[in-house]
Amino acid sequence: MLLRVEDLYKRYGKEDVLKGVSFSLDKGETKVIIGPSGTGKSTLLRCINRLTEPDRGRIWLEDTEITSPKVNINRIRSQIGFVFQDFNLFTHLTALDNVRLGLIRVKGMSKKEATERAMAELARVGLADKARAYPAELSGGQQQRVSIARALAMDPKLILFDEPTSALDPELIGEVLAVMEGLARSGMTMLVVTHEMGFARTVADEIIFMERGVIVEQGPPEQLFRSPKHPRTAEFLRRITDLYGGEQ
Amino acid sequence: MTIEHWLRVWNYLPILLQGLSVNLALLGGLITVGFIIGVVVALLEVYAPPPLRLVAFGYAWIFRSIPEILLLLLMWFGPAQFGIKISPFIAAVLALGLRSSAYQAEIFRGALQAIPVGQALAARALGLSRIGAIRYVLLPQALRLSLAGWGNEFAVVLKDTTLAYAIGVVEVMRQARYIGSREFPLTLPAYITVALLFLILTYAGLFIIGKAERRLRIPGLEARR
Amino acid sequence: MALRRVAVVVLVLGVVGLGGMGAEKFVVGTDAAWPPFEWVSAKGEILGFDVDVMRMIAILEGYEVEIRDIAFDSIIPAVIAGKLDIGASGFTITAERAQVVDFSSPYWSSDQTVLVRAGSGLNVVTALMPGRKVGAQRGTTGAFWVEDNLVAKGVAVELVLYETYPEAIMDLLAGRLDAVIQDEAPSQQAVRQYPGQLVIAGVIKTYEEFGFLVAKGDPKGILPRIERGMKKLKETGAWDNLVAAYFGNPLEAVESAWEACIDLLRVAKDPVAYAACLVQKVRELSK
Which residues in chain A are contacts of B132 at CB distance < 8 A? Predict the structure, then answer.
């Protein structure tokens, strides 16, 4: 087991955002978390690399307990890729430098080594020719692909995707999903929060349906989409199919 | 003021320029002191734990509140009470530099706070420490965003250097007064010449800063005016 | 190049400030914008009666002086704070000042003069009537006289204070002042520099006396040496020569003479020969 989340709680002010979430992820597995907005999906992801501190519960990455106060969190974070909804590329750095920064400053690679690695990752997401471009000179889709390359370069054990296509124009979504699909097929371990049901259905090994801070149901895509056990799951799927026009 | 007066002031130009070089030396010293302390104070104001943050805000408040001429006199007379001897030039650099640091801290603080939260999150998510995130991501962006405000501060402190004569630094304004006291009718032409010199210097300085701004320009990270 | 020179000066000042070693040395503060007592020549040298007296006494009494130019109203605070050892800037001896510093015996007598525009038709009385605008340099006895004898006694003149004397003269010429109150010697200087434009309307007998000043209690024992030095200068005739050279002559002539003779002081360290040289050269050049 690569990642284990046990009984996670998080409260903001008076609102309970996570109310006892438990699940696990095996190496090479891709799980997709779906659910209505504001049900704690993003908070869950951020708790996993402790960008947000959970109130209660424990998380393990392989044998290391991430939630232990003694853990070197910077080291853990360097092993967990994170792809943001708003990309969050460093605006003052070129695409190449965005990918290189962590390699040089966190992993301590030489500049030459880092450059080679970064160029390889940019090529992998199809943007080798944009290495010298600044984020503002790239389309949203290209920016998100650079941010995926930035995460990949660190050789993460796992990548967390927080609604990676939600900020994109519809015509740019495809290129990002294609990259993600390729990653999943190559054996990368991924945990993806998304509203892209087509992606969830074809790529996920398992779907987790979350609502109001709890996991309502989880299972293989075929089972969950065809015959959801829980009425709330069925209701959500019906509404989202109306909204996004079903399979893409 | 006749043509003859102007011709006579022309003869004094080397002396005025020599005085101006003292102003430039003061400027170089005070802006360096102000920059280094200003960056530290701004970082403390934005990122330090509350007690230290309070100290930083207190510092900036003190040095923005005290009139510059008073700061100069305090810095010159003050250390002598404790047996510390500093030259008028060093006292002027410190007094004006500390004052400038308070204003530069404001500029940098504004820039730091203008950086979207996502930048820090992305840096931390990569595994950079707090200090690393500041050093490699936040500060470089903030300094670029600060350039315009910083250019303005440059123009202000350049003029402030003329106050240093009060504690015995012989700079251009003092030289102009020497000329006036030697030849009374040259007082006004000498002052006008000094004014012109400052116009030229300010223009040249802002031109260089503007050029630096264009050179350092990064798409999507323009300095705000 | 100029910048480099400044850097060197800064370095030297710093080293001197930190080290403070070598021969016995006193720092003399003067506001070098008050010819003929002290001013800065076209070549950037500080000269003048006060300054030369200080240099000559230093040689006679075996110490070194560093002349430092500083705003007039900063001199006494700087002496009190120990940043300066001696104030030599045409200071009138007053009871007020004597409470915070110690003075040498008087070395100069002066009265105040009232300077007005030529053709204004003002005299001492009409120039100082209520409603007149009167200028003076900040911190000088001229300014104090106006405050104590006019303003405080209900004569509603408007007193305008200036950082330096020439600025007051400028405002007088521009018509923004009706009169400027100032010591005799500088006033005569101003009249010479604006021929036909300024006149001395009259003299106010204040019987002021100038003295050199040191910190209260004279902790470094400087005053006795100044007294001895002045006595020697007067006995040798050097004093009279210096007076004859500095007062009543064009500044350009004094500057040229000073340049020609100063090595007698700096190199030969002979105050008597220097004063004789100075007065002779000034006379030649003034002709």
Answer: 105-106
